[in-house]
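Record now logged for everyone:
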Amino acid sequence: MAKYKLSQLLLHLFFICVSLACLLPVILVVSISFSDENTVVANGFKFFPEKFSLDAYSFLYNQLSQIITAYGVTIFVTVVGTILSVLLIALYAYPLSRKELRHRNKFALFIFITMIFNGGLVPWYLVYVNLLHLKDSVWSLIIPLFLQPFFVIIMRTFFQTTIPESIIESATIDGASELKIFYKIILPLSLPVLATIGLFNTLNYWNDWFLSLIFITKSNGISLQYLMYKTLLNIQYLTTNENAASQLSKMGAVVSLPSQTLRMAMAVVGMGPIIFAYPFFQKYFVKGLTIGAVKG
């Protein structure tokens, strides 16, 4: 009994240390975002602000309308993209898990090849711009991330190893169609893998900035991450380029911009809403991590 309690204590201590290792960087980011820029540059990063300042958030407040617009775009892309992506992946993976599907290995090979090879950036761009006409469209931020081959393989493995074929056979004998079996039986039994892939897709859509860089030219159509990225690049340019700084000084503009603290404030603004997605997926996420594990 003593050995058992000791092992439990050590296990709890280990996970407490792991949790702190994940939590401390977040605390540090929040602390720096509320610190004075000159103090941070002089004394480095601290877990508690030596000199409290809201300069970084004041700078972001001046761009409040752009941030709200970018938030709207990102939330729409994340929600719609995640739902459609998970549904499309499930619709592709489920037939691949059925032995009755003819040439299923060829379809699996087709999706697997895309994990190794791609057509290149220029052909990829031309397809979306010239063929699909998605330039400056919100769908250009959604469609390119629709079908992730790795997620298809994960979901196919879940269908093959977790859902008994006897359930499908019983439903077929009772006269259920393939579509009804999929929506009434397969999807409710697949909540762990759907939640796991949904979480990964949510993170992919929320953190994406590259698609806005490639396809969006209108300022009211870019995502939040790209807005933050572009703002940070502009500040870095103004603070490091002497010619730009001198021109701003002649115009009476303030050159002292919060670079380090602004970077952390952007991280806080960017990661805030996505944190609320984890409790929603947490119920199924741990179980989903064991997908494909050896059962015995």
